[in-house]
Amino acid sequence: QVQPVESGGGSVQPGGSARLSCVASGYTYRTDCIGWFRQVPGTEREGVASFYSGADANYYADSVKGRFTISQDNAKNTLYLQMNNLKPEDTAMYYCAIQRAPCPSFFGVGHPRTDRGYWGQGTQVTVSS
Question: Rounded to an integer, what distance in angstroms lies between the CA atom of residue 19 and that of residue 8?
Fold first, then answer.
């Protein structure tokens, strides 16, 4: 059973940085869609940054382009999200997800399917002064 577990959230001042980590126990690297999503209570979950290893394709939401960077360490089965120049509107619960292709929601198309693939429990990021 694959179980992603996120960490690295917390409170950050505007303009600050944070790095989220996601360790996927039980996961064997394959050609999958891997990414980060976030959700504010009362709103829909949205894609933040993802990649599809089968096509070496990356995706970043317009709101985070130039500030967030997704990366992975296959040897450690760990996914990262480096977040720089954080803004109050980045405040959300951040989720790590792994899904077999097709995965349009990982690339900003359609709504995330939390009934597909593997999702972590989330880590809260709060940006405030």
Answer: 6
Distance CA 85, CA 90 (A): 10
Can you spell out the DSSP letters for 65-110?
TTTEEEEEEGGGTEEEEEE-S--GGG-EEEEEEEEPSP-GGGGTSS
CB 79 within 8 Å of CB 96: yes
For 39-52, write each residue's pLDDT tens digit.
999 999 999 999 88
Secondary structure of residue 31 in the 3-state scheme? coil
pLDDT digits (tens, 9 = 90+) for 68-111: 999 988 888 899 999 999 999 999 999 999 998 889 999 999 99
Residue found under tokens 């359609």: 110
Residue-wise pLDDT for 24-42, tens only, equals 888 876 778 999 999 999 9
74: left (phi over 0), alpha (psi -120 to 50) or beta: alpha
Buried b (16+ CB within 10 A) or exposed e, 10-34: eebeeeeebebbbbbeebeeeebbb
